[in-house]
Amino acid sequence: MIVLGRLSLTLALVFSLASVVFLLLGVRWDRKDLLRNGYYAAYGFFLTTVIASAVLLQAFLKKDFGFAYVAENSDASLSVFYRIAGFWAGQQGSFLFWLLVLAIVTIVIAVLDLNRLERLTGGAVAVLAIISAVFASLMVFDAGSNPFLAAEAGMQPFGLNPLLLHPAMVLHPPALFIGYVGVAVPFAFAISTLLLGRADKLWVRRSQKWAVAGWLFLSLGIGLGAWWAYVVLSFGGYWAWDPVENTSLVPWLTATALLHSFTLYKSRGLFKHWALGLAAATFWFTILATWTTRTGVIQSVHAFGTRPLLVWILSGFLIVSAAASAGLMAWRWRRFASHDEVQSWLSRDFLYYVTNLLLTLFAVAVAFGTVVVPLLMDKTVGTSTYNTVAQPLGVLLLFLIAVCPLLAWRKTEGSELRRTLILPAATMLLSAPLWLYLGFQSSVWGFIGLLVCGFALGAIVQFVLRSARLAAGPGRSLWSGLGRAFTGSRTRTAAYVVHFGMVLIVAGLLGSTVYKQESSGLVSTKVGSDDAVFVTDDGEYSFEYKGTRDLPGEQSSTRYVAEFEVVGEGARSLGTVEPRTDIYPVAGAAVRAVILGRPFQDIFVVTDEPFDGESETIALRVAVFPLIQWVWIGSILLCVGAVASLWPKGRTQEQEARETQVAGDADGAGHPDGAAA
Amino acid sequence: MRVNKRSRTRLLVATGIIIIVFVIGVVYLVQRQGAYYSQVADLTTGQYDGKNVKVGGRVLDGTIERDESGVHFEISDLTGKPDTVAVTYDGQMPNTFDAGVDVVVMGKYASSGGLITAEQLQTKCPSKYEGQASPAAQTGP
């Protein structure tokens, strides 16, 4: 079986390279037969990748520990769910999973194009095949990345890292990889359209849904990762500005700007340079993420010595893709110029522009702190530095996305602006008592940020109401327009939902970082004694120790559960919390936090060190996170919004879409396919 | 045409100002708050007194103490030199923290008393995690 896996991978590499050659020649000479052959080669690539993946999957399912990779990431005691998760638990398998998703996406694009055989799509599939070839060659040539190596004789299965035994952690890596592949599609189309010199809207139309899907899965992946860190890692937070987290946030930021640029590109022929640049940058940052987390160069430059092939292939790919994108853009710069300029500061165009600029700067700053600072400046920056940049920038961006839809295109009249700002100003003032009630006056900046959240909420309501009024038309009731405001345009509905989600996320992030309260101390395990009670620093909550019991856990571990009664203000009992320690026979001990949800806050309880039935003291740590639930609700809304915009259109909408499509093609007729390519 | 050109110049100037302010801000922050990478043995030279440092070391057996102010322990140099430095940390301990484990601490170093007051503490996990600095690192791409 190992041989079959390795053979399929090698064939996948050959097929992807063949596909690249056929497609590039087909595009160059405008020959449909060559394009078709290129797609057939892509079928071969797809099939061999599926076979390789199936081989690895069956090895996990059948507990075939003859595969070194299976033995490293699984053991006999794991349930089926977690045995499947072993597939992407390590580097080798995640490369293969990535290749599989790439193969699926490539084949869908190829099949959809089989009766059109466009040069644009042919070029894009060629770019996807090049990316596939890079990943396939990593697995074929770099032993440390190959999932098909035989285990050494007598090797014992390691099992899955106990921290990864959580549903969020099973879904987080695949969500990110799917997101990374999703945003590779607009990159592929951008390169293809640059090569062909087609400055029309076709490449955006072909790749927009993929970009939205990529963004959806990136959001989902980041959200799941944060939630897992919060409930499982037990470090008293959900975001540590760790390189792994940062490098997944960076492409999300640029992808967000990309989606906005696509909207303007499609509707008004603006932001063409932005769209191309952001498509290239987003993809590039996903490769940078892999380079950062997989080569280990950031941790130590010695990685060059220990894994030369991995480092050189990925570094080379980073350099080549950056140089190719930049070179092509410079070459075609004039052709992609937009004819409409920003005419007024008070226009939607200008705020879109500033939003794009700030999102890009945000991404660059995070990448700079994560990669450039440790690598070239021999320094490192911590959480507080990232927060100093991210908090004001996040609030500013929220303000912009709130105001932006309320402004008119080109120029907004002052009187109209004042009218639209009444409602947001009102909700801002109305939110103030809530923030005061929650005690948020302790930080001026946090308070201002939360007021902006209140403002943004009103702005979204105003946006919906205005669309409803427009949809209802003169003389009709607002209610009749309200339904149509939501069903009229999927993009607009998605904008309402996603922007509302962002209001909740920013408020939740501010609440849970600026106003986090943390206290710790030792609690005696002598039930009933004075020392067996822990009081938080602000005196708001006390925790009384009630006893410890043990239970059997996963992977033959023992789980020790300490019970504490939580008492709030006025000696009111709020229930019990049970922080845990899991003691594993091989991997050691892990402490597990528990969370007591309260209105407007979470009480996060964990012990600072493992304990068991014999411990004389328990080192208790209590963190209060205000508004944190809003982060999770907001993240769900982001995904709901993205799904809404991806949802297949109804019949009337399809009709409309087809009409605009015809208009779009007419628009593109001015640039014959591949002129002067 | 002329209006167009003027608005274009205005936009470029505005963009330039935003970028310059932003870059200066970020570089200033990194200079001010960034921590120097160093080895335990480097700290004895005195050049890092009162500065933010990020140091890797092995937690020495029998030095871990816990009291109300946090956890106190000593780490040894990873390059084989005999130097050690004391660390005090009052934050959530990573799950894998224990004597003999390699940790990376980040915080302010004071040469008097040879003590790092750590703001961040990460453990380098056992070989299983491919030498990454945090368990989360295992799950990335």
List keywords for this structure.
heterodimer; A: 677 residues; alpha+beta; Four Helix Bundle (Hemerythrin (Met), subunit A); 6-stranded antiparallel sheet; 4-stranded antiparallel sheet; 21 helices; 11 strands; disordered C terminus; B: 141 residues; OB fold (Dihydrolipoamide Acetyltransferase, E2P); 2 domains; 5-stranded mixed β-barrel; 2 helices; 7 strands; 34% strand; elongated
How would you explain this protein's 3D organization?
The complex is a heterodimer of chains A (677) and B (141). Among the domains of chain A are: 1-165, Four Helix Bundle (Hemerythrin (Met), subunit A) (Up-down Bundle); 397-515 and 630-634, no CATH class; 517-626. Chain A has helices spanning 2-29, 32-61, 68-73, 80-85, 91-113, 119-141, 167-196, 202-233, 243-268, 272-295, 303-306, 308-331, 348-376, 383-403, 414-420, 422-437, 444-472, 478-487, 490-514, 628-646, 651-668, and strands at residues 379-380, 517-524, 533-535, 542-552, 558-567, 573-577, 580-584, 588-592, 594-598, 601-607, 617-626. In chain A, strands 3, 4, 5, 6, 7 and 8 form a six-stranded antiparallel sheet that branches. A four-stranded antiparallel sheet of chain A has the order 2-11-10-9, with helices on one face. Chain A has 677 residues and is of the alpha+beta class. In chain A, 53% of the residues are buried. Chain A starts with a helix and ends in a 9-residue tail after the last helix. In chain A, helix 17 runs antiparallel to helix 19 (490-514). Helix content of chain A is 64%, strand content 10%. Chain A is built from 21 helices and eleven strands. Chain B has 141 residues and is α+β, with helices and mostly antiparallel strands. Chain B folds into two domains: 1-33; 36-139, Nucleic acid-binding proteins (OB fold (Dihydrolipoamide Acetyltransferase, E2P)), CATH 2.40.50. Chain B has a five-stranded mixed barrel with strand order 2-4-5-7-6. Chain B is elongated. Chain B starts with a helix and ends in a 17-residue tail after the last strand. Mean pLDDT of chain B is 79; it is low at 125-141. At the A-B interface, helix 5, helix 7, helix 8, helix 9 and helix 10 of A face helix 1 and strand 1 of B. Strand 1 (379-380) of chain A pairs antiparallel with strand 1 (35-39) of chain B, so a sheet runs across the interface.
